[in-house]
Design brief:
It is built from seven helices and seven strands, in the order H-E-H-H-H-E-H-H-H-E-E-E-E-E. The chain is an alpha+beta fold.
Amino acid sequence: MRRTSVLIAGFAALALALSPGLAEARAGGGSSFGSRGSMTYSAPPSTRTAPYSAAPLQRSMTPYQTSPGYGGGYGYQGGGMMRGLMGGLFAAGLFGLVFGHGFMGGGLGLFGLLGLVLQIVLVVAVVRFLFRMFMGGRSAAMAGGPNVYSGGGGMMGAGPGPGPSGPPTIPITPADYQQFEQLLMGIQAAWTAHDMNGLQAMATPEMVSYFGEQLSEQVSRGVRNQVSDVRLVSGDLSQAWAEGGREYATVAMRFSMIDVTRDTAGRVVDGSPNEHVTETEIWTFVRSRGGHWILSAIQQTR
């Protein structure tokens, strides 16, 4: 019974350590999906608004291609390098527990579990430090200026591009930033209204299909998410480049909003109708040269 209790506690600890956070309700649902052209599987450079790396795109219609992005191409296949390390340590502990050697090989029971958790924390801390040190140096080399803007504030500096070996960079003007801010608010409004026609005018067909799936899921669950009073707090440019007759811009945006989910009776089941929440996401926009920007990808920040 004692070993069974420790085993259950161990699985609970693993689930807590490795499971993703609770799904968020705003447009995109806290997920990462879409396409960024040839940069789809490369990590966008970090910015002041999003100082750590972006989450990789979980879903994309762009065919997968090997890329040195996201820390050298390792870390996002099969759950990630840190997740693999944690899973390996946990599996080793379970093996010892099941075959009578104790969770840590010394028969320490619950104390062995605590020791395992401590090992996991130390390993994750070391790997995270090395990863940030590597990516931080890389991002600093790619950055080209402050590139900070805020709602109504305008742009400072020219934007960094994909680098000397990538596609050519393009300038981003204050008018472009105004479009990005308008798209942020417009997409959230269309999402709240379940306005698919509105979303089609502001996002690629790929993004609209993902939004449609999420809205359909809300309907099937008998709930409706409402996002209101969206305010851009700050943002900055990560990348801007041209390829294949199209132009792309990846922008980190921190914004606040009222994000509440109600059931069919109007009862609040998630969020608060009176409190703003603040989120930071990385949005990529695309346009034909000379055309209007539309949303092509959303990525969550670390």
